[in-house]
Amino acid sequence: MVRLTSFISSRAVITSICVALALAACGGDGGGDTSATPSSTGAAPSGGTSVSGTVIAGAVNGATVTAYALAADGSHGDALGSVTTDSGGGFSLLLSAIPTDGRVLLVASGGTYASEFDGASIAMGSPLRAIITGVGTGAVSGVALTPLSDLLVARTVALAKSGKTLADALASAEALVRSAYGLTVAVATTKPAFDKASIGTQAYLIGLILGSFETCGKSLSPSARGALQAALALDFSDGVFDGKVNGTAVTLGDASLSSTAGTSDFLACVSTYASSGKQVVDAGITGGELSATVSSLRSSVVAAPSTPKSTGLAASSSGAISSLAFGGKQWVFIAARSQGVVAIDVTDPTAASPTVKKFDTLVTNFGGNEIGGVVPLLGADHPQLLVFSYNSKHIALVNADTGVVEFETDLALTNGAFSFSGGSAYISGAIPDTARDGVWLSTVDGYLFFDRAAKALTTDTKRMFAFESKADVAENMGGDVAYGYLFAPNYFPGVQLADLAAGKSYFLTGTDYQAAFPLIGDPDAGSVDTGYHVGLITNEDSSQIGLINLASVVKTDVAGGPSTFKPAKGGTVALSLGSYEPVISGSAVDGDTHLALFMAGYSTDIAVGLIQDPASVPAGGAWAGLSDWRYVAGLNGYSHAKDPHAVAVIKNLTNDKVYGYLLDGGNRKSLVVDMAALLATTPKGSTGDAAHTTAIDVVGTGIVKSISW
After folding, report:
1. Taking the mean position of all CA atoms in its chain, how far away is CA 698?
2. Consecutive H or E run containing 671
3. What is the C-alpha separation between 439 and 376, in angstroms, rounded?
């Protein structure tokens, strides 16, 4: 484990400050408080160049701010002066000398501040630091040292140690921090704001972030609230919030830092702070006034490259299996039909007997109907599950940890149930939308948005997507919400693309669809590789699949509709996984590794494929869709699970391996597929179907295991 104390004692914590013409790449681009921008203002006062600014974790009183000469690798040299902050966190010091390269490291240590969350007096548990570049003979002002600086600092140091120049490291780290929280201004030049009048500015967004950090400090590290931020910065140093530094766990006190402290746990803290934080309440701010800022922050955290996709804040398909990591654990949730919802702790993928929770009484809430869907939500101050039955208009919001039903209702759906080959349904699937605090539902009335806070289907027409005339709803839809799409292969046959930003649907049907996918006459389900933005189409119980490069589509608005979309030339692939087998109709895919799992509701065949990046195809080449695949015809010990498709692909946060999950039709176990291992198995031959059929017993070799309940 990486001990927190090693971070606190390090002198290499760096925050970029853009001064004069230096490092123009990290300058602010507007939208926030620019009054804190450091500047050189004329001749230095007698005794040296002055440097002034603010230390804010709340306003830190009594911190010692020391300036050092700074080397290119982030290490510091001689002290150049020090000063103590006032009650508002302000400081101004004189440099005894000006480094020849113009780089100065500021270190603020010690002191106390009042928590934005509850007003408690907190001892600052770790230093905050900043780099000033381009220091000359003029006075430098407006430096803002905040807890966000620790994130920028830690990443900058790691990049500098890896060989980047300090300037490049600063610029790269700045971009990553901005993307993590949706910031458009330089992190250390914007003073946080907490007043009502500042809502909507970048300054207030930073204040919201700091208040949420403080909220997490109380819940995640109550005995050492001032130490959490340093642990988060250390976690962030390798560019990913996962509780580790290059695979080694970060510690906080005597325990490991939660692997989800910077992602799902943070978003729960955002909800708590926005509704009950002292700074919010004292300013007379209501939840409605913060909704746009909170939504923007959620959206940024979900889409950020520092957030592992496997955290579960977004989903690529609406199958009956989903996942969410929270509280330092990674869970798989299964809509287990007559068994209600089953939650499996997969934090340790090697555990022989992982923790399994059964929320089997949920079936009673649905009048005895089998549970067909379960979707994690993070809009409340704790994780929830939206649970639904295939054959009912009923939905329930369930505590993801305890299984307690916190709300339930019948949705206001007007049409009767539609029929599939596997039965009938009012709701056939769902995709979570963390940014909008709700769920996109595939229903008899269209693709509709359930607003978690309002606890009802929205009446906003831009969040209601009707089917094309005669179209049947997708049995399972795909989602790339951060990219702005729902991807729905409808039975019509055709594909419906819901543009979430525009609030419009676009269709690939008729001759255009038939030309692209001549053998997929009954498109049954969809999923999306959210890394490559590739949509997968599976046919009803056949070996045929289709792929669409969603990044290449051209949308055309048609007056009187329906509007259409068309992929660019070479932007579709029609593929047979085998001549007659495997028999598949559903899929799921991991957007980090691009491994896809194919299965069916009414067969025991499975296949694993690796999606090829369309952008990697050289000029003049043809996109193959899948780089390779393996299939198993008739998986031992697997009973088909009927509809809706019960499949998910999840990258484990502990060992970074990718696993596929299937519900067994007996409703008493889940099969777990080591995706990379199955794809790497020796095939039966070198040509034709044999080149893609695994030659080994994947159950006997442990590539496919099971978890029973």
Report:
1. 32
2. strand 669-674
3. 9
Residue 88: how many other CB atoms lie within 10 Å = 12
Average pLDDT over residues 256-274: 95
Structure letter (DSSP) for residue 205: H
Reported pTM: 0.90
Q: How many of the other CB atoms lie within 10 Å of CB of 379?
A: 25
Q: Which residue type, as a one-letter code, is found at position 681?
A: T
Averaged pLDDT for residues 21-44:
35
* Token pair of 701 as six digits: 């070799």
Q: Which residues pair with 430 in a beta bridge?
A: 441
**Could you tell me which residues come within 8 angstroms of residue 208 by beta carbon, excluding any fewer than 6 positions away?**
270, 273, 274, 290, 293, 294, 297
Residues 594-619: pLDDT tens digits?
A: 999 999 999 999 999 999 999 999 98
* Lookup: tokens for 222: 């109550």
CB 330 within 8 A of CB 323: yes
Radius of gyration from C-alpha coordinates of the chain: 27
3 state DSSP class of 415: coil
- Residue 93: its H or E element: strand 90-94
Cβ of 83: how many Cβ atoms within 10 Å? 17
Task: Classify residue 133 as left (phi > 0), alpha (psi -120 to 50) or beta.
Answer: beta
Residue spans of beta strands (DSSP E) within 319-421: 321-326, 329-335, 341-345, 356-359, 371-377, 384-389, 394-399, 405-410, 418-420
Pairing of strands 504-509, 255-256: unpaired
In this structure, what token pair is assigned to residue 55? Answer: 């230390």
DSSP 417-475: PEEETTEEESEEEEEEETTTTEEEEEETTEEEEEETTTTEE---GGGEEPPPTTPPPPS
Write the single-letter amino acid at 243.
G
Q: Are 394 and 409 in contact (CB under 8 A)?
A: yes
| CA gap 296, 274 in Å, rounded | 13
The band of 350, judged by pLDDT with boundaries at 50, 70 and 90, is very high
Between the two ends of the chain, the Cα-to-Cα distance in Å is 33
482: DSSP letter: G
Contact between 189 and 54 (Cβ < 8 Å): no
Dihedral in degrees, nearest 10, Cα atoms 362, 368, 373, 379:
-40
Which pair of structure tokens corresponds to residue 590? 């991991």
Angstrom distance (rounded) from CA 536 to CA 572: 10
d(CA 664, CA 505): 35
Asked if 347 and 258 touch (Cβ cutoff 8 Å), the reply is no
Query: Which pLDDT belongs to residue 433?
Result: 96
- 181-to-168, 282, 321 alpha-carbon distances in Å: 21, 24, 29
Cβ-contact 153, 146 below 8 angstroms: no
- 214: helix, strand or coil: helix
Q: Tell me the pLDDT band of 684, cut-offs 50, 70 and 90.
A: very high
Rounded to whole angstroms, how far apart are CA atoms 287 and 89? 29
Q: Is 276 helix (H, G, I), strand (E, B) or coil?
A: helix
Q: Are 203 and 33 in contact (CB under 8 A)?
A: yes
Residues ≥6 apart with Cβ < 8 Å to 128: 13, 15, 55, 57, 60, 107, 108, 145, 146, 147, 149, 150
The answer to whether residue 6 scores a pLDDT higher than 80 is no
Q: Pick the closest to residue 364 from 392, 332, 345 (CA basis).
A: 392
CA separation for the pair 8, 107 (Å, rounded): 11
DSSP states along 620-649? T----SEEEEEEESS-TT-----SSP-EEE
Beta strands 356-359 and 371-377: pairing type?
unpaired
192: preceding bond cis by omega (within 30 degrees): no
